[in-house]
Amino acid sequence: MFGLVRAARYLTILPVGGRGVTPVTGIGRAAAWFPVVGAGLGLLLVAADYWLARTFPALLAALLTVTLWKVVTGGLHLDGLADCLDGLGGRTPEHRRLIMSDSRIGTFGAVGLILFLLLEIVALSGVDAHARWRVLLAAPAIGRAMPPLVARFFPAARDDGQGAGFVAEVRRRGAVAAVLIAAVVAMLGFGASGLVALAIALVVALVTARFFVARVGGLTGDVLGAVVEISELAVLLTVAGWPGARL
What we know:
Elements: H1 2-11, H2 34-55, H3 58-72, H4 76-87, H5 93-100, H6 107-125, H7 129-151, H8 162-169, H9 172-190, H10 192-216, H11 221-241
């Protein structure tokens, strides 16, 4: 249970288990709890969207739900995505990592975030009520199961830093447990179709990680954050674009 509290405090801004700054050391050992935290976040989103969808037009309700989604997570993964996009403008892996470490957001990051959030909002607004609560439950759990998985496939970019610590601490059983928990949540929401959405997210996560690893020399905390966000978007797009997932 200590691992669950640690994961919840790291992945959300909710005051779980007390106040204070959450240490990032040891978070990799709590990786198996990541999709559990994601499922908890999903339940919060389902409850909020249930009221919002009955109060506001579909597009506005989707905007407010996605806003809550990102606020509760403190924009943690969005920041990683923006930094990764900015880093693409670098000339070498070292230069790209230097750009990514800059706290300021650049043109690539700003434009990328705007387009990314628009995709999430429009995709969610286009999902009918029958499948909407299901995707809100499954997507956060699936997305948060991806960092421990990719950490077992790719090396860290540096010997120090948040990404290096996470990669060093994640164990095989933690990665397997995270994927299995995400599979259970996906099946609870969509049945067998949930496994298809999970499989697509797995492929997208590995391709995304491989793309950025080739450009920055390995995994970083920013790359792991980008993997979460892009995997969640993959689930949303799968459900929005595949009628079989909405049965």
